[in-house]
Each structure stands twice: as C-alpha cells, then as structure tokens.
C-alpha cells in the first residue's frame, strides 16, 4: 500500500478540566476555574474523527494517559491531598489530548535511512505537560513498532520541544520527499517561548534529514505576544500549500524565497492583517485547522465553529473559496470544549505519513471502533468537573475506571499496564 497521511487524534480524557495552567494560551487563561464537561469534550472529539472518516481520510487515535499522576507528585515530595492547588491541577491535567504536541514526525521519503522517524516532545516549558512524554513514548513505541519506523526519546533539557505544532512539512505529494521546517521562538514578551531552535536542529540530525531541504524559521514575536503560543495557531500546511497569517513569521520574505526555490510549485495563501487581525486569528483559531487533501481531489479546511462565529474570518474565507485556489471546502467542526482549553482541530491531531499496514491496528480507527468508544465515554466519563472536584478522592476512582474500560476495550491493558503509560 502506498504511503498516506494518517491523522492520529488524542482522545480527550476523563480528567478534562479548566485549570488555566498554560501562560500565553489566552483561551486557557480566560476559562480558568470554569466547569468543564469531559464527556461532551470526548464525544466532540470522536465526532470530529467520524467526520474525517466520512471524508475518506485515514484516522488513528491515541489514548488518554493515567491521571492524576501521583508518581510525578511523589517525585517532587508531594501528594494529592497536601499539594498546592496548581501542582494538584498539573497532576490531573488531560493535556495529552493535544496530539499535535506528542512528537515531531519525519516521513520515510525525507530521511537518510528511509524510515519514518518520530521524536517524542519533551514539553518541558509547562510543568503540567512536562510529565507527559514518558506515557506518550510508550504509546508511540507500541503503535509504531514495525521496522519501517524509528521512535526516539525526548530532546534533552534545557531545549524546549513541543512537537509537530511547530513543525511544517511541504511536498509535491505526501509520499514524495519534502521540505521540513522547524519554527522556533526567541521572544514572546510576557509569555514564555516554548520551541527552541536547538531542539529543532537536534531533531533534524537525529532524523537524518537533508540539510539542503531543512529550514529553521523564527516565529514572529508579535504572534507569540498575541497568543500564538505554537506556530500552528498562525500557520498550517498541506502538501504544496502553505496557509498563514501575514504576521506569522519574523522574516517571511527570506522564508518565502527559500520555499519557492526548494518547491517551485508551492502555493502560499497569506491572510492579510488588515483583513483578519492577529487577535481574531487567535480567538477563532482560523489557522489551527486541519488542511487536508480529499480523496476526490482538492483540499478542505477543517475549522472550529468559532471561525464561523468571527465575521472577519468567515467573510475572508468565503471570498477565498470563491476563487480558483487549492482550498475548495470549509468544514466547521464543534470542538468547543477543547477550544475553551486552548486547543482546536489541529491541536487534537498528529499527522503521520506511513503505510497503515505497518501500524498497530489497535491505534487505527474505523466507524465501528469509534462508535464503541463513544458508548464507553457516555457510560464512564464524568459529565462535569469543577476545580473543587480535583480535591475529591472519589473522582480518582471514577476516572481510573473510565480509562481502564477504554484500554480493556482496545485490548491494550497488558501493554499499558502500571500507573502510567
């Protein structure tokens, strides 16, 4: 079977809550302390996956990690009962749902050894995410155990790496050699920079990328300061198309010249700041969309419904699709629970170009499998979680039972045994 793009979505876990743990993520901060709805959140994510299957796309999934992470707290001399509220919340975080931060992926056509390489992200900048990588690594090692893959551990601190959310791949077709772009930050004003250039350079060496087809591009400081904590909040790419905000990159002129030299057929669709402000782009997550190639030709932009609700954004998109450009369809999806915590459709998925036959089938999704998971979610996931609920010991048993039901259902209990993934 030829190589194809597979979108692996993170299934939203039963501890989904709004603790506002992510400085620079404006939606996360705005909704801190509100009541979250884990069951609705997970069902929204499943519905998005089902809709992608209906489009003819290949779909995979990753599982929620074991939370609360008591072992992490114990390593810090803490426990769930006595921990400060922000540390307790960090132990409960369901942020592994945002699979775009799981890893950086270099498909086989780009690498020296002809294998697909995946490097798990260290996520070291944010305490509530810094303890994800070991659980993510275990899932990656199971899902991509075939000889056609190489799975690598995290880049060493102090070099921050947040995975595919800051990585762009452009190519003539998914199965052809591509250009890999590592986007990094230097200054975010009041907000921390999460992606370091040193991490990107290390990953490019580890993956065996061709230096002549690898670029390191600085994200605009204005974009970071406006709340674009990851580059995928202001830019998204698919095959030969780059869709970006005018203020996404620090030196777009040099960047675009390099792209046109390396990939003459590239189409750059730039949204002008005078039409859509950075504030509206961040609020609507216009660029945190899945830009996908449809089986019957053309491309579609799978957007959060918030883009529809933002007049400047929706008007500009409407004019764009009237033209003869490559993006022919706009498909709004409801992921409002994820959006309220600062993650849109693109945050929820990791793109892997590979032969599906080489992937552990337990991590691949079809309609029947997703229907079965939805039944479990409806039965076991808490309907709501308020901040005070994180102090309730009874909630631990509820969320652990929920996750156990899921991994038993997918026959992954033996592989994911123990208190963490």
Q: Between the first and last Cα atoms, what is the distance in angstroms?
A: 31 Å
Count of structural domains = 1
Q: How many E-type strands?
A: 16
Q: What characterizes the major β-sheet?
A: 4 strands, mixed
Query: For the record, what CATH class applies?
Result: Alpha Beta
CATH architecture: 5-stranded Propeller
Low-confidence stretches: none
> Which structural class should the secondary elements be placed in?
alpha/beta
Helix content: 25-40%
- CATH topology: the name is L-arginine/glycine Amidinotransferase, Chain A
Shape: globular
Task: Tell me the CATH superfamily.
Answer: Succinylarginine dihydrolase
Q: Over all CA atoms, what is the radius of gyration?
A: 20 Å
Instruction: Write down the overall mean pLDDT.
Output: 95
How large a portion of the residues is in β-strands, by DSSP E?
Answer: 15-25%
Please give the count of helices: 15
Give, in spatial order, the strands making up the sheet with the most strands.
15-1-2-16
Can you describe what's shown?
- By secondary structure, this protein is α/β, with parallel strands linked by helices.
- The protein has a single domain, classed as 5-stranded Propeller (L-arginine/glycine Amidinotransferase, Chain A).
- It contains 15 helices and 16 strands.
- The chain has helices spanning 26-30, 38-54, 70-75, 85-92, 127-130, 133-143, 197-206, 221-225, 252-262, 278-284, 305-308, 311-322, 336-340, 367-380, 393-409, and strands at residues 4-10, 58-62, 103-106, 116-120, 149-152, 167-171, 178-184, 214-218, 235-238, 241-245, 267-271, 290-293, 299-304, 327-333, 349-354, 364-365.
- Helix 2 (38-54) packs antiparallel against helix 14 (367-380) and helix 14 (367-380) runs antiparallel to helix 15 (393-409).
């Amino acid at each position: 079977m030829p190589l194809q793009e597979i979108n692996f979505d993170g299934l939203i876990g039963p501890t989904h809550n709004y603790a506002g743990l992510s400085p620079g993520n404006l939606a996360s901060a705005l909704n801190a302390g509100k009541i979250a709805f884990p069951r609705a959140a997970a069902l929204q994510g499943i519905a998005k996956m089902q809709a992608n299957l209906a489009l003819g796309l290949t779909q995979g999934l990753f599982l929620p990690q074991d939370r609360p992470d008591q072992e992490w707290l114990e390593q810090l001399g803490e426990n769930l009962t006595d921990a400060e509220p922000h540390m307790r919340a960090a132990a409960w975080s369901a942020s592994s749902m945002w699979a775009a931060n799981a890893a950086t992926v270099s498909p086989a056509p780009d690498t020296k050894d002809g294998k697909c390489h995946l490097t798990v992200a260290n996520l070291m900048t944010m305490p509530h995410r810094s303890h994800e990588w070991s659980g993510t690594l275990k899932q990656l090692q199971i899902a991509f155990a075939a000889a056609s893959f190489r799975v690598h551990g995290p880049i060493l601190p102090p070099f921050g790496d947040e995975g595919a959310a800051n990585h762009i791949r452009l190519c003539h077709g998914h199965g052809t050699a591509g250009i890999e772009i590592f986007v990094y930050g230097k200054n975010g004003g009041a907000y921390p920079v999460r992606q370091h250039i040193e991490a990107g350079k290390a990953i490019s060496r580890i993956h065996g990328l061709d230096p002549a087809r690898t670029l390191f591009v600085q994200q605009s400081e204005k974009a970071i300061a406006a709340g674009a904590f990851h580059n995928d909040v202001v830019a998204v790419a698919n095959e030969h198309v780059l869709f970006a905000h005018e203020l996404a990159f620090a030196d777009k002129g040099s960047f675009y010249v390099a792209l046109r030299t390396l990939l003459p057929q590239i189409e750059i669709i730039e949204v002008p700041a005078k039409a859509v402000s950075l504030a509206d782009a961040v609020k609507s997550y216009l660029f945190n969309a899945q830009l996908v190639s449809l089986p019957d030709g053309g491309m579609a932009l799978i957007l959060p419904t918030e883009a529809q609700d933002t007049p400047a954004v929706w008007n500009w998109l409407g004019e764009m699709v009237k033209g003869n450009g490559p993006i022919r369809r706009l498909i709004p999806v409801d992921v409002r629970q994820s959006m309220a915590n600062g993650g849109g459709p693109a945050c929820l998925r990791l793109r892997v170009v590979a032969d599906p036959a080489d992937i552990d089938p337990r991590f691949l999704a079809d309609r029947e499998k997703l229907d079965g998971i939805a039944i479990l979610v409806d039965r076991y996931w808490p309907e709501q979680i308020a901040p005070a609920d994180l102090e309730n010991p009874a909630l631990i048993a509820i969320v652990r039972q929920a996750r156990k039901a899921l991994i038993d259902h997918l026959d992954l209990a033996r592989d994911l045994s123990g208190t963490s993934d």
